[in-house]
Design brief:
Length: 139
């Protein structure tokens, strides 16, 4: 009964971590969406000039995505060792220990990167596809 109670508490703790992780991902994606929207509007004339000078929509989207890939990589380099340390510390309390595999961190990084890149691409697509004459003559 004591073991069952301990594992029931751990299961409840795992569900809470999952819930708060999903909330944190939703908040961060909202922030990325807002930052991308602000940046694409702020750089609207630059996008128009780049289009006039011959840049394709793909190149403009790559320009936006490249910056965020660097930010995500930096965040991953800082957060992965910290997450590994927390996982190791948490697993020390169990009788049967399982190793913390690096694939967990790599898959989560790839998933967050994919979701972020989709968010950025969808938001930047509107300004990248716009007629450059409209963006330059706004002022």
């Amino acid at each position: 009964e004591v073991l069952d109670a301990n594992y029931r508490n751990e299961l409840r703790f795992t569900k809470q971590i999952l819930l708060f992780s999903l909330i944190a991902i939703a908040i961060s994606l909202t922030g990325v969406f807002g930052l991308t929207m602000f940046e694409s509007e702020y750089r609207r004339k630059e996008i128009g000039i780049r289009k006039i000078m011959g840049s394709s929509t793909t190149q403009i989207l790559y320009m936006f995505n490249q910056r965020y890939i660097l930010i995500l990589t930096g965040c991953f380099i800082v957060a992965a060792p910290f997450g590994w340390w927390i996982g190791q510390h948490w697993l020390q309390g169990f009788a049967e220990k399982t190793p913390v595999s690096p694939w967990i961190f790599i898959l989560s990084f790839l998933l967050v990167t994919l979701i972020t890149m989709l968010t950025i691409t969808v938001q930047s697509w509107k300004n990248a596809r716009e007629n450059p004459a409209n963006s330059i003559k706004t002022e």
